[in-house]
Amino acid sequence: MNIRGMAPEDYDAVYALWRSSPEMELNDLDDSREGVLRFLERNPGTAFVAEDEGQVVGVLLAGSDGRRGYIYHAGVHPKWRGRGIGTALVEAALQKLRAMRITKVGLLVFRDNGAGARFWEARGFEPREDLAYRSRVLLDVTRIQ
Length: 145
Known about the structure:
Helices cover 30% and strands 26% of the residues. With 145 residues, the chain is an alpha+beta fold.
């Protein structure tokens, strides 16, 4: 297994991996080829894929606003889980963010994703009971089922 930076050419394999994960929430704008390529351009060097024999088996998108780091759309193909791939992806992203002098990293986990919550808590990501997440839609998106 090899961890490397995500390249634009990885999009189709990454999207297929996301679609293989029932807990992944996708939409037609942010997760489109154009949306992901825009993310990669805005956040160079902070997105990673895990490969085995040329097949993408894991992915993690990370980024920064210059102060805080964020992790988005991390996933390992269901057939490849439990082998340390997710942990290796997290460590690659955290190492890159540390090198950028980012001091804190956040992420969101859906309330009904118990396995995801346990994964992140086991890697030191603590729930914040003092925050209430808010969002506002600026462009209409269609959720992909």
